[in-house]
Design a protein that fits this description.
By secondary structure, this protein is an alpha+beta fold. It contains 17 helices and 27 strands. Helix 12 crosses helix 13 and helix 14 packs antiparallel against helix 15.
């Protein structure tokens, strides 16, 4: 399939346009390359986008993380880039089609019911037409499913189901259809190798209020699973059934028009980590810190002539040696020089660069361990960084510390926390085009709801004790360099339980060669020195003599 073929079909069917989302039947989940229609049509490889094709033009909607990347990857003569930082897709659609007779086609397996309803409310005179025989866009790769053991999860599936059934009954339902794969995985304590970085079991589960359930999955060795086609036969059997319209494909409503839009409570349940999970997460971060520090020592001696891909592979080799390691939690971002200014840059054989001296290397990486998921970004000076790099890195560090040090009341939302982090940059007229933090799953999605730290998070859930979040402010100078400093933190209650604070989980030195001490306050210097002391004391017994001496210097007081 290519854009010209789509445009030919639109002309023949007299359609105004067609919507393509970046996803498959598991709304908002990671996908495989063979499931990615936007990649197929435009060559854009980012993890977030929306494509709208008209008979004469195509429009690719991307957020601030991918504006530079999109320009480099797509054919700009055929596809126009629309910045979501300037206008939302819904606003754009209303501006262009509110006053015209419009027929827009879509795949009902890959657009959520809530998104479809929003579109129908936005353009009430338009016709939104599902494409007949639309595919689920599900790879046919054979999948191995395995149990996530109680020694890691701290809770058996039966108990989780009992808790969720209490919620089903409270909502006055007879059954509930869970369409979020990460929620299915958490509820059943099941994982799989379906995706390279996210070990979730890509399945739906239909749970009755008495605790019995049916699992829907394909191309896997889970023997009790039913084909997704069975949903059309089974769903109409229920009068009182719920599903979350935000994660359920629109086709589900066509199978049973009585399905009630009911928030999936599993999202909230799994966001609050239990004591066993929290202990595992701390241990996973300790081992991940050992691997990253060993790598950073190696890099300090061996960066010359190395490429970005070689750097990522070397870091992976250190992680693979650690206990309970399963995979990376996402494809490592190793961006040197100007590549670091592309927020979600990924080196390929075509754009792979040699590490540049007298510049910075932005390294964003993480690991999936059976007892926890990690995500850490360090910006590393290679040779002698410029004064501009040092100044901007120090400002980003100030932003990171501002939020890491914050004490905030219960019920604080992500947009309020976001403003705390941006203040040091705002004071210099600077900003960054991505969120400041995201929730993190437990041997699951590295990006997890319901809470997130972003200026766009006004409707997101409040932060609660037991949640895991990243803090990752940045700065990006196009065609020059990029800066980001990211740690993961656990949300904890203060002595006064009306207030919350962050406890650091990530253990890895922050490069002092990129810090101008004169730009830091005494409190900020104290924070950094305390953090580095914690890193050193936590990791020292796991390193060789040479690695230890390097870490001692890297963590010495500023």
């Amino acid at each position: 399939m290519d854009i010209k073929n789509v445009q030919k079909e639109l002309k023949n069917s007299k359609m105004s346009g067609r919507i393509f989302t970046l996803g498959n039947m598991f709304i908002n989940e990671d996908i495989l390359p063979e499931e990615n229609r936007i990649l197929e049509l435009t060559k854009f490889s980012g993890s977030y986008a929306l494509l709208f094709v008209t008979p004469s033009k195509a429009y690719l909607f991307v957020d601030g993380r991918y504006e530079l990347q999109a320009k480099k990857e797509v054919n700009l003569r055929q596809v126009e880039i629309v910045k979501l930082s300037e206008i939302s897709f819904f606003e754009w659609l209303r501006n262009n089609y509110a006053k015209t007779a419009t027929k827009i086609s879509y795949n009902p397996w890959v657009i959520s019911q809530s998104a479809l309803e929003n579109l129908q409310n936005l353009l009430p005179t338009a016709q939104f037409i599902p494409v007949d025989n639309s595919p689920k866009l599900l790879s046919t790769q054979k999948i191995k499913v395995f149990t996530h053991q109680k020694k890691f999860t701290g809770q058996i599936s039966k108990d989780k189901i009992a808790t969720f059934c209490t919620y089903i009954k409270k909502q006055g339902l007879d059954a509930y259809l869970v369409t979020d794969a990460a929620n299915t995985s958490w509820l059943l304590n099941l994982r799989s190798n379906a995706l390279p970085y996210t070990p979730i079991f890509r399945a739906y589960v239909l749970i009755e209020k008495n605790g019995t359930y049916k699992v829907f999955a394909e191309h896997c060795d889970y023997e009790q699973s039913l084909s997704f086609d069975k949903l059309e036969e089974i769903l109409p059997q229920y009068d009182k059934i719920g599903a979350d319209y935000n994660t359920s494909p629109a086709i589900i409503k066509s199978y049973n028009n009585k399905i009630k839009n009911t928030p999936d409570e599993i999202t909230n349940l799994k966001a609050i980590k239990n004591a066993v999970e929290l202990k595992g997460i701390r241990n996973a971060h300790l081992r991940d810190g050992v691997a990253l520090s060993k790598f950073l020592y190696w890099l300090s001696k061996n960066y010359k002539g190395k490429t970005e891909i070689e750097i990522a592979e070397k870091l992976l080799s250190f992680r693979k040696k650690e206990l309970n390691f399963h995979s990376e939690s996402f494809a490592t971002i190793a961006g040197s020089g100007a590549n670091a200014a592309i927020v979600h840059y990924h080196a390929t054989e075509q754009n792979n660069s040699i590490i540049k001296k007298n510049n910075v290397l932005l390294l964003d990486s993480g690991g999936q361990y059976l007892d926890g998921t990690t995500d850490v970004t360090r910006t590393i000076a290679i040779g002698e960084p410029s004064s501009d790099m040092i100044e901007k890195n120090t400002l980003v560090l100030k932003s990171h510390i501002a939020l890491a040090n914050a004490i905030f009341p219960q019920k604080t939302s992500g947009d309020e926390l976001d403003l705390i982090a941006r203040q040091p940059l705002y004071k210099k007229g600077l900003d960054f085009e991505h969120g400041t933090g995201h929730g993190v799953g437990f041997f699951s999605n590295v990006h997890e709801g319901p809470a997130r730290i972003s200026i766009h998070a006004k409707r997101s859930a409040e932060y609660k004790a037991g949640m895991i979040t990243s803090i990752e402010p940045g700065y990006y100078k196009e065609n020059a360099f990029g800066i980001r400093i990211e740690n993961l933190y656990m949300v904890k209650p203060c002595k006064n339980p009306k207030f919350l604070h962050f406890e650091v989980l990530t253990l890895a030195p922050i490069d002092k060669n990129l810090i101008n001490k004169n730009l830091l306050t005494a409190d900020e210097i104290n924070w950094l020195n305390r953090y580095h002391r914690q890193v050193f004391l936590s990791l020292k017994k796991y390193l060789t003599r040479q690695e230890l001496e390097w870490l001692r210097f890297a963590c010495a007081p500023l």
